[in-house]
Amino acid sequence: MTAEHSPQNTDHLLHVLFREQQRARFISDEAINNISKSLNLPRAQVEGVVEFYTFFHRKPRGRFDILFSNCTSCGDTKLLKSLCEKLNVKPGRIRSDGLVSVDQTSCIGMCDHGASLLLNNCLTITSLTTERIDQIVKLIKSDTVIQAWPRQWFYIGDNIHKKGLLLTEPFKSGSALKAIIKRSSIDVIDEIIASGLKGRGGAGFSTGLKWKLCREAVGDTHYVICNADEGEPGTFKDRVLLNSYADLVFEGMTISAYAIGAKQGFLYLRGEYRYLLDTLNATLQRRRETGLLGNNILGQDFDFDISIVVGAGAYVCGEESALIESLEEKRGIPRIRPPFPVTQGYLGQPTAVNNVETLAATAKIILHGDHWFKSHGTSQSKGSKLLSVSGNCARPGIYEYDFGVSLQEVLNDVGAENVQAVQIGGPAGRLLKPDHFSRSISFEDLSTGGSLMIFAKHRDMLAVIHNFSLFFAHESCGFCTPCRVGTRLLEKNMSKLCSGRSTAYDIDEIRHLSALVSQYSHCGLGTSAANPIMDGLKNFPNAFEKRLLNREMEPEFDLDSELSEARLMTNRDDPGAHL
Amino acid sequence: MSKLRVATTSLAGCFGCHMSFLDIDERIIELLDHVEFNRSPLTDIKHCDPCDIGLIEGGLCNIDNVHVLKEFRASCKILIAVGACAINGGVPAMRNHHPLSECLAESYLNGIGVENPQIPDDVEVPLLLNKVHPVHEVVKIDYYLPGCPPPADAFMKVLGDLIEGREPLLPRTMLRYD
C-alpha cells in the first residue's frame, strides 16, 4: 500500500488508472501488470479496482468517449437515442472504426442545466438540445480535436437563486483560521457542538461530537476527509460550493484538522467533477503560499495539508467507509460498522469524514459564533440547508433556506406549477405527494442531503420509479446478495410493470422483495433502494393500478417469442410451434 | 377425511427430486393413508384431474414443459416448485450463457462424431425455448422447496404440514440449497 502520498497524489491508484485509461482508452492486462508492479499492489487488487469503477474499461473505448447521464433531471433518453443514431453507434458499444463510443451513466450532477453528458471522462457539456447534439455529431464525425470545440460549451454556471447563512457574505480566506489559532482545539470543538451543527450529507450526526470522538480516539495519526463524492441523483450543491466557495470548504477542513489533531486531509472528489480539479489545486496552492496550509500554519505549531483524490464513477463511494476503501486504493465496498471511521478510518487511524457543506458551515460558525448559527433553523435542526432543485420548475438551481422552511414555500420560490410529486433526498430519499407539501425541511421532518426533484402532472411516475430502480441496480457494489440480486429483481419487476404486463400478484411480490432488500442489505444503498417503490405504492397507488392486468398471473416474458430461435432453426411454423 | 390428491411431474430436471422423494422409503405406506397420487411418473397417469397439491421438479426448457406446467397450475390448488431447477433453472440453465442456435449447432451440426448433421424438426419433438426459465416466471407458485435435491424429510415435512392443514414451514436444518 502506498501509505505516503505526495501532496499532488500522482501515484494514487485511481489517478494512475485514469491516466492509463486516457492514454490507451482502455486498461489492458499488460497495463494492470505494470501498474501492479510499479505501485507494489497485488494484481488482483488493481484488476478489482478497474472492474469496479464505471470510468475504467477493460476493452477499448472510442477516441471520443461519451457518457450520457440517465438521471431523471440531467438525462434525456430521446436525445441519447438520437445521438446514437446520428453517430451510427449502439449504446454501450464502440463504433467499428474506433472513432466514438456512447454509454449511459448515473446522474452527473448537472440537474440544473438539463440534459448533460461527460466527454472523455473529464469534460462536461450541459444544456443539450437537438441542435447541440447535431453540432457535437458534426465535430465528432470530422474528428475535430476537443481543444477546437467551442469553449463556452464546457462552461458550467452556478445557478444560485437564493443565498442564506452560508452563501450571502463573501468569505475572506484565512479569516476563520485566524480566529481559532489562539484558541484550544477543545474550545473549538465545544463551539461546534454548541452550534448544534449536524452533518449535511443526510445522516445528521452532530459534527462537533464526531470531532470530539475522533480527537479522543487513540491512533498514530488522525485524518480529515471531505466527502465530495456527491452522487445522489439530483444533488449538485457541492459542485457549486467547490466551484465558488472552495476557500470556505478548505478552511473548514483546516479547522477540523486543528480540532482533531490531523496533519493530512483528503478531498475525495467525484470523478464527474474532474473539471474542477485544476482550480481546486490552484486554490490549495494559493493557500499554501499564504501560510494557510503546510507547515507552521499562520506561524503556529500546526502542520496540515490537503490532497485531492478523484473518484471514477461509483455512487456507493459516497458512503463514508466505502469512500475510505476507495482512498486506500481498493474497490469501494462499504465496511462493516462499528468500528466507525472516527476510531478506525483511513489506514485504520481515527478519521473525521464530513460533507462539503458541513465543513463550509464550520468555518462560518467560527467566524460568527454558535449563537448566530443556532438562532436560525428549528429546535432540532440548526442553521441552513442548501437545496439542489431540479426537474419541472421555472428556475432550477441552488436555494439556501433556514431549516424549517415548508416544501410548498420552496416550490413557490422555484416556480413549480402543477406539481404531481417531489422526490426529496434523491432516489434513496422519499417520494412525496401534494398532501405532504406543507411539511418542513428539517432533520425532524423531511431530511435531505440536498436533492429536491420536482415532477409535474404530465410526468409518468412509474417511469420515474423505474429509472430510480435502474440506478440502484447499476450502483449496487455487489458485495451482499440482498442488494446485488434484490435491486436487479426490483428493476425487472418495475420494467414489467411499466410494460403493462403485471398483475396484482406481481405487486405482492414487489412488496415482499422490497421488505427483504431494505431489511437485509449490508449498507444504506440497499436499505434505501426500495424506498421509491414503496413510497410510490403508498402515495401513487393509481399509477400502479392502472397498469395492471386483471388476471391472477402473467408470465414475465412473452412466451411465444421465446420460441423464435427454435422456429427459425427448424423452419417450423405449425400451430404446435407456437405458445 | 378424504385423501388429498397429489400430482407430480419432472420438467427440465433429472428426476433426482423424485428419487429423493422416494427416499422416504416405507413411510410412503403411511403417506398413502392420507394422499392419493394422480398424474405422476409414479402412476403413469397422463393428465391431471383436479388436484390439491402439485409438485413441480425442473425448470422450463421447451414448449412441452410450458404446456405441462400450465395444466398443473390449472388443476392444482397448491403448486410447489421443488428443487434447484424449478426454482432457479439449475443445471439446464447453464446453456443460457449461449444463444440457443449455437447450442443446437454444437449438438446436431458441428459436434464431434455427428453424422448426417441436421437440426431435429419433427413436430413430435418439442421446440426448445430461447432460454431456460424457472417455473415462477410463468405461473404463480405457492411454495418453494429448495435443495438439489431437497432431502426426503423435507418432502415429508411439507406434505405433513399440508395434510394437517398447516402452512408448510421448513426448519432451518432442512433449508439447504445443495
Walkthrough of the structure:
With 579 residues, chain A is α/β, with parallel strands linked by helices. Chain A folds into 4 domains: 64-154, 3-Layer(aba) Sandwich (Glutaredoxin), CATH 3.40.30; 161-374, NADH-ubiquinone oxidoreductase 51kDa subunit (Rossmann fold, 3-Layer(aba) Sandwich); 384-456, Ubiquitin-like (UB roll), CATH 3.10.20.600; 461-545, Up-down Bundle (de novo design (two linked rop proteins)). Chain A has 22 helices and 14 strands. Chain B has one domain: Rossmann fold (3-Layer(aba) Sandwich), CATH 3.40.50. Helices cover 29% and strands 20% of the residues of chain B. Chain B has helices at residues 16-22, 27-31, 63-75, 83-88, 100-108, 152-163, and strands at 4-10, 35-37, 51-57, 60-62, 76-82, 128-133, 143-145. A 5-stranded parallel β-sheet of chain B has the order 2-1-3-5-7, sandwiched between helices. A two-stranded antiparallel ribbon of chain B has the order 4-6. The A-B interface holds A 505, 552-553, 555-557, 559, 561-572, 574, 576-577, 579 and B 63, 66, 99-101, 104, 119-121, 123, 127-131, 133, 137-140.
Q: What is the count of β-strands of chain A?
A: 14
What form of chain B results from the Cα inertia axes?
elongated
Taken from the alpha-carbon principal axes, the silhouette of chain A is: globular
Summarize the biggest pleated sheet of chain A.
6 strands, mixed
Strand order of the largest sheet of chain A: 5-11-10-14-12-13
Q: Spans of chain A with pLDDT under 50 lasting ≥5 residues?
A: 1-7
